Each structure stands twice: as structure tokens, then as C-alpha cells.
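subagent[fold] <- orchestrator: predict structure for attached chain, return C-alpha cells only, no commentary.
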Amino acid sequence: MKMRLEEFPNVRETFTNDGFVSALDIIPSVEATKHRARLEATERKVGKLHYKSKVHTILCSPYELATHPRVLDIVEQLIGPDILLYNVEYIVKESRSPAHVSWHQDLTYWGFDDDAQVSMWLALSEASAESGCMRMIPGSHAEGRREHVVTHDAANVLLQGQTVQAVDETGATLCALHPGQASFHHGWTLHSSLPNTSDDRRIGLNVQYIAPSMRQTKHDEGSALLVRGEDHFKHFREDQPATSDLDPIAVARHNKLDKLYQETAGAG
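subagent[fold] -> orchestrator:
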């Protein structure tokens, strides 16, 4: 059953005006804690999963969260009824870590020909000012693409340390989230985050959705998964969602997918 629109009556309007919407209740906090436990159990087997792309093809938990009906109902309001799941990855800041994210725009390096896209950040632990939650600049998406420079900061977790310089932070909005809450932001929205100074890990699931009309311009090997509606364009190869955790065939396939994603986002 679809979410009643009156639950989040201003989602589309807020997203259109500000370029993001935050602190939407997706799942109960106790359920978020269970999904965190599933992640950390997997980490004990295979190591850290921070920034591993397309984890929904090897693990059931991220696939379940990325395709949750409440999530897809919100995404449908933002990009329309036809939805491709492009990427799912965990973003983890360890406690008392200097890791940070500089001001940037997601779409800068992804190679898409359009901006019919939205990213979800779903908290699996507390995302507060202390733990380094995201900050966003309201309305910055309306300015389109900004110039980025490549930096060499080991504490910057972005693939190239890509940074928009001279950002006026006076109007920045702090997007604090409790476990089970999510924010959704446009691909041109300027955002960043500060280090985690808390005693707990800051764990989020980052999910990227695109309209089927989008096209990858860097190569013709891009993949995605139809999760709602229809795909009349067929611009992407079809990802296979996880049906069990760490299936050896899926893991072998994932290694190639992860490498391709890193190469795509790291090129130009």
C-alpha cells in the first residue's frame, strides 16, 4: 500500500524549493538498529563496507531498505512513477575520527546526461551535529553545476576530495537524523559534513535513484535495477538484487560492479 500523501504533505514543494527534505520517518528506530546489527555482523566476516558500491547486489538488508514502500513513495513524488535503483552504499564515520566530507555536488562526476535523480541518506545510527551529520545549502541546486577542484586531503572521504570552494555557510542547514529517519537531496544540492566527535559510529545507507530516461555518458556499461513503474528506455544493464547474503557468484559479479562504479565516478 502506498504512503498517504498527507503523511508528508510538503515533501515535493520543500524539495523543489530547497533541494532537499530531511528527518522523514521511514522505519522504527528498533528496526534501524537491527539493520545496523546485520551490517556489523557482515563487517566481522568481510571487513569494512564503507563506500562499497552496489551492496544491494550482495546483501539483503540494503536492498530491503532501498526498496521500502515508504521510501519509494517519497522518491515517486520527487522524480516520478518510474524509478531505477542506481546505487546503494554504506557511509560510515568511525567514532572520534577526523573523516569529513567537503562541500560538493553529487552529480558532478557521475556522468549522467540529466538531473532526474535523488539521493536518500537513511540513518542506522544517530546522525547529529556531534557525530558529523550532513549540512546542506538550501536552494543551491537551482544554481546548477558549480566548479569543483580536486584536493589531496587524506581525511576527506570523497573519491577525489572534490570540493566547491568559497561556499557561504551562513545559511547552511544541519540535517540531523535519528535512527530510522532519512533525508533526500537533489544531485546539485551543495552538501558536506564535519568529523564524528562522538563515541559511536555514524552509519548511514546512501541510495541513489534515477529516472529511466537518464543516460550514462562516460560508457555504455552502466547498470541499474527497476524498482517501480516501467523502463521504456533500457539505457542500463540490469543489476541483480541479493537473494541471500554474500552468495559467491553475486560477490564475484559485485567486484566488477564496484570497480566500474569507482572508475566512473573517478574519471573527470
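orchestrator: received. Logging for downstream: The CA atoms of residues 54 and 257 lie 7 Å apart. The radius of gyration is 17 Å.
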